[in-house]
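Record pair follows.
FIRST:
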Amino acid sequence: MAKASFFVPDLITLHIDDVAFGGKGVGRTEGKVVFVPFTVPGETVTAQIVKQKKNFAEAALLSVQDESGDRVPPPCPYFGRCGGCSYQHMSYERQLGIKARQVEQTLRRVGRLAEVPMRAIIPSPSEYGYRNRIRVHVSDGVVGFYAFDRHELIDIEQCPIAMPEVNAELRKLRGQQVQDGDYTLSARERERFFSQTNDAVAAELLAVVRDIVKDGQASLVDAYCGSGFFAKQLAHLFKSVCGIEENEFAVARARRNAAPHEQYIAGDVATHLGEVLREQSLDETTLLLDPPALGLEPRVLDFVLGSPPREIIYVSCNPATLARDLAGLSRDYALQSVTPLDMFPQTAEIEVVAHLLRRQP
């Protein structure tokens, strides 16, 4: 039997109801969801279907018939073609509201959490010019970023969300004859490990974590500790600090000038966390989790539930994997607070801090 196909004319008129995680507006036609980029909730738009799927369709924005009061002129001449930014067409306040709602909706839908104790989203002090590094691609003399929804390189002379020092490095690179490849341009000396790209919001992130650490905790276990971004600044609150990180360059940096009560282990969290937790007095232990976007490996989650510390602070750059992991932790832990931070204005990315306390037996 042939599969039934959903017919939509090439040109459609849609009312945009919401924005999905990733930045595309959400409309519906004949009961089918249609995603349209560069739209604002409340707008009526004309769009052209470019991709059909079984349960949804994707469309390109052609015109806005009924414009939102939150629509603003994007300052970047590449916006809409470059794949880096999703939200330059809307006011910053609206961006913040959309991101906070996306976090809550994702935790409810994916994590199946009935109650999500949301705190107010923390904005970036700078809406533009905040990135202390960017990664550009060079191919056949073209220097820039990949296009939106296409593997095509867009020639970029300047990036408005990057710091002036970074754009100076971009101009220098463009003036040279360089080989094809990827180049990281930084406002300061490059490190061989991850570091936050928005210095001001990184400081806010540290303040959020410091504020929610329970008083009287003796031990901090910092999993995925990097070069000690959290551990170094929180070490004075604890009698012992143990960081685990697989990047040896980051561990070497963390070990520099480490206090006597600080220890940093070079290796995979999934290999070492179980042993580290078993050595702690769990009733006095804070576990800080700051995994990559893929979230926690099942083995790591098993270690945490097998030797559950009193307190968990989970820092995430991916609300979907955070929601999945919170669902796994909810058996033994009660969610105390969820704090979104806008680490990347104008983009669809969002940072989140979740605070959990172990349930009483």
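SECOND:
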Amino acid sequence: MGFYKYNRCQLSLFASSIDERLPADDKSRFVVKLVSQLKLDKLVNRYSRQGNDAYPPEVMLAVWFYAYSEGISSTRKVENLCKY
């Protein structure tokens, strides 16, 4: 088992990246920067090697930090937030 690969600079179907769509002062940029500075080695090492690939902990943590900062705890609402 490993982690899914991701690229925040990947272009979408409409040939524009997330960086081009989000304002420079968007809260999500702050959350991603904050999470990237955390030491998550112990968390990553605790992941089981069994089963399918998992989403990287830094991605999931950033999603939940952002959701909670918006007052959202419902997983359905978090899904809609991810679409944003």
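COMMENT: Residues 47 and 54 are 9 Å apart (CA to CA).
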